[in-house]
Amino acid sequence: xxxxxxxxxxxxYRRTVSRxxxxxxxxxxxxxxxxxxxxxxYWMISSSLKENWEILSFPPTLWPHTLTFTHxxxxxxxxxxxxxxxxxxxxxxSRVFIVLMVALITGYSLAKLRFPGREVLFVLVLALMMVPGxxxxxxxxxxxxHYGWIDTYAALIIPGAINSFxxxxxxxxxxxxxxxxxxxxxxxxxxxxxxxxxxxxxMVAPMVLTLVLVNAFWSWNDFIWPFIVIVRDEMSTLxxxxxxxARLLTGPVGRNIRYGEVxxxxxxxxxxxxxxxxxxxxxxxxxxxxTGLKG
Amino acid sequence: xRLSVKSIQLPGxxxxxxxxxxxxAFLFLLPYLGYLxxxxxxxxxxxxSGSLSDxxxxxxxxxxxxxxxxxxxxxxxxxxxxxxxxxxxxxxxVPPSILFGLGVAVLLNQPxxxxxxxxxxxxxxxxxxxxxxxxxxxxxxxxNGGLIxxxxxxxxxxxxxxxxxxxxxxxxxxxMKIWTDVGFYSVLFLAALxxxxxxxxxxxxxxxxxxxxxxxxxxxxILNPTIVFALxxxxxxxxxxxxxxxxxxxxxxxxxxxxxxxxxYEVGFIKSELSYGSAIGVVTALIxxxxxxxxxxxxxxxxxx
Lengths: 295, 305
Fold this sequence. Notes:
With 295 residues, chain A is mainly alpha-helical. In chain A, 74% of the residues lie in helices and 0% in strands.
């Protein structure tokens, strides 16, 4: 038995030595994986910076011969991508604001307030989380059409803003706020609205961040709903505009000679969310994985 | 800070509130209840009753038809075709994504440098708009002049009709989605692997187990609930896939990549057959709901172990 007892430095030494060969293989595989993961992004960006002749040249060039921004200039000036960018920002900001406010007050009520039917409402929230959204697509479209909301911000923002999943998240977060805090504030004469925003909000801040990130991500990337309710390019969000632009140029059979522009538009569509992602990677990864239960 | 404040207070609800109910609750719940009424309950009711009636698109009137459209669905070869496509997609995409995700997680769980950087890089496809990915991959996949076939031709492999043949279209979309989903699964499994208690691994080492034995006999049983969760998650996502086939193949050629949701879209929005589209939506939702319930049951059972 005594042979197993090692000093700390021996242990570190053994671990380091035994790790080396395995480690190199691990790095090799991970780097190959990195290349595979990044290559489509690299190809998209590098193609968007190539001149047309080079995009279609054989063999394909990995690195652009001459860097050109003409595709970006053309996309920015002709297809209304700036307007689509503004639309996307407006839609994401409004939806995140609405869902956050509603999730805060509803989640707080479900966790901390006493009202008749609380358990029933919570079970309903849980049940609604499981109902796939596609079932609402046709009736919601008719509803929006009936209200005359086609091609408006209202159609893009209102029907999809709130989701039961966010309500559930906030309810779980508020459960962790001690009742004593709330009771003490009530004694001091504060109302629940003030308690919620002055005492509750700082304590659930991490979950608020998750909720904001996840909802912003969902609505930035959302495609099927905005595609259905928006007809005019001026009201399109970025993904919808990109889809229309790419489909317009690529027939089912025909070859598109304007791939430079399509790739420039594709780059611009993903750039904002990728920049945000790169700035706060850890939070983003954890929020999205934690909330992966909702597709 | 927080602890010290709490410790000097009496446990539980020391202060008695004045009335039985908190009146603010009714005000606080109003927006959510309004949303539920207008955008959940009402459309839900419309979808169900619409699928049981002849639903006129112009007047919005419904004439009760009973289960007519569900009967039609049972005899619709296009619907079965779309279910079969989903099955093809599932077998190409779900098990490999999960296996690769697990593999990457195991690698990332090694004592390595730049773990966070690798994790983020693999996660990039997950956060990128699907439309962007679909557009880029449609080009990579192009039969003539697409990069993948060009590279294949350079090593002497004849071009593959990735998106233009009936046998390849659905698997091609599945391959692209493996590429996007591996990052998600690897983060999921990495988090689960980091929960594996070190004592267990040390105990196994003392007993002379090698890394592979430890993985199979110690880690996999602990990962089991996560694997089940990922499997059912992937299945639900697979059932809901729409944007990729819609943009990359339009569901073709000859309906070979038409998924269930794409079929619902075609019937409901392109052919404007509201009743039939609603019936497809309801049946699809029921299938997904069934998978979700199985998932909850299995995850709960496994977690308690």
